[in-house]
């Protein structure tokens, strides 16, 4: 399950993955209570994933394969019988492979932060979760 919420003690470095804004806020208060210096506010943001553009590549791959086959062997009908369902299947396989490759090499685009909330901390120790 994707947990879109995270918190920050400085509005720059966000951490954690939480299912709700409230859980992220509570974790932020706990972190503020344990922080070595005073924290003035907890910032909670919602992460919005960025589409890595890994889809809709099947037609380009097939066209490139056809071109290479035409250049190497003069073959003009290679893959011309592929129908839309087969191309959709290939597109899904390519998308899966690209997304896995991005994750494996830590190249997935960083999510953008949206819907930032600020929670003041008057006394960090008063919000400590025991």
Based on helices, strands and strand pairing, what is the structural class?
alpha+beta
Mean pLDDT: 93
Domain module count? 2
Overall shape:
rod-shaped
Q: Whole-Å distance between the termini?
A: 27 Å
What is the total tally of β strands?
A: 4
Low-confidence stretches: none
Strand arrangement in the largest pleated sheet: 2-1-3-4
What's the total helix number? Answer: 3
Question: Compute the gyration radius: what is it?
Answer: 24 Å
The ordered H/E elements are EEHEHHE
- Beta percentage is 15-25%
**Considering DSSP H and I runs of 4 or more, what fraction of the residues is helical?**
25-40%
Major pleated sheet: 4 strands, antiparallel
Key words describing this protein structure:
130 residues, alpha+beta, 2 domains, 4-stranded antiparallel sheet, 4 strands, rod-shaped
Describe this structure in words.
The protein folds into two domains: 5-50 and 111-127; 58-104, no CATH class. Helix content is 39%, strand content 20%. It has helices at residues 21-34, 58-73, 84-104; strands spanning 5-8, 14-18, 41-48, 112-120. The mean pLDDT is 93.
């Amino acid at each position: 399950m994707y947990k879109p919420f995270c918190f920050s003690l400085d509005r720059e470095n966000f951490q954690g993955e939480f299912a709700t804004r409230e859980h992220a806020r509570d974790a932020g208060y706990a972190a503020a209570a344990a922080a070595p210096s005073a924290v003035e506010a907890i910032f909670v943001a919602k992460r919005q994933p960025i589409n890595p553009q890994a889809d809709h590549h099947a037609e380009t791959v097939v066209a490139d394969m056809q071109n290479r086959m035409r250049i190497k062997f003069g073959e003009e009908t290679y893959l011309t019988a592929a129908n839309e369902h087969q191309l959709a299947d290939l597109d899904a396989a390519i998308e899966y492979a690209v997304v896995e490759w991005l994750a494996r090499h830590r190249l997935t685009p960083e999510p953008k932060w949206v819907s930032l909330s600020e929670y003041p901390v008057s006394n960090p120790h008063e919000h400590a979760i025991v």
